[in-house]
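Checked the freezer inventory, then went back to the computational side. Two predictions to log before the end of the day. The first one is the construct we discussed on Monday; recording sequence and tokens without edits.
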Amino acid sequence: MKRLKDLVNQYYADLDKTSVDGLNKFVSKYVSSDFVLHLPGGMEIKGTSGLQEYYTNSMSAFKEGSHTIDETIEEENKVAFRATASAIHKGVFMGIPPAGQKFTTSFAGFWKVKDQKIVEWWSEYDALGMMQQLGMELKMKAQNE
């Protein structure tokens, strides 16, 4: 099996240069069927089919994506990484219509691997900063008088 650090680098290199079909090949080879992706806000993506659907939706909303892996730490069957992503918003994302706006966000990921397959992925990213770059506004709630 590849070193886990190399697997992270390969995943993001494939993500930046490939189609959904190319990513599905990566998923088939390196992701367990009982996989779980934990996203901010308690959202979970389960199984390889859930991950493939997530890719399809994300790749239709964001184009010209790029990722830079800033740091990785590998220990036994786990790898942690800190990175930066950018893309152009060209499709509907979480109800937000496309505005052609480029965004950049920092994120961190933690993978757990079993039997040479990724079984669990925890992902944290600057969701607020990303949403603001996509045109969302943060407003204070009106105070009750």
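The second is the one RB wanted added to the comparison set:
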Amino acid sequence: MKRMVRDSGSLVLIALGLAMLFFVGPLFALQAQSAKPQEFIQDVPDTPVPLPAPEQPLPYSHKVHLALGLECQLCHTNPDRGRLMTFPDTATCMKCHASFGKNRPSIQKLSAYDKSKTAIPWVRVYTVLPGVAWSHRKHLDAGMNCEMCHGDVSQMQVMANVKSVNTMVGCLDCHMSHNAKTTCTTCHAAWAPEMVIEKKQ
């Protein structure tokens, strides 16, 4: 009888141990996983069809430059109206490139832009569509960061339009997930003739 009690006591302990393993263990694993810091949150969905990167006047890798510790705001400022982010002045680039890589053809071309005080004619990857009242400033003030709309730029050798940030569905999805306004006049102040985009023949 004592042996049966001892055996049943062992079975209870084994059952409790298994219960801890199967039910409590996953909770600790889930807690540890949720405690991991996220590098960035992407709110805008990917573009359904990847768009090719536009040809730029100079080769530029965000991946290389951000790996050196540069931050978005060093090159892309947001002046007073807040609509578009700017491109860096050539003097900003030449702070490093006056000595680094100066024998490369692309850096020599950069230096020529700088000496002639000519802005580099970068091609914008994302464009605001006609009739859309858009402001980077409002979004930055609301706590949005660059990666939320433009993806993980730190991994891009060539900047391309990879997010559907300039589509109505992309904007609406993000606004709804952040409880922001979604009325027509949030983005479209009023109807105007330039809002009609004619189909090219």
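For RB: The chain has two domains: 40-87+126-194, 89-121. Confidence is low (pLDDT under 50) at residues 1-6, 15-38. Let me know if you want it refolded.
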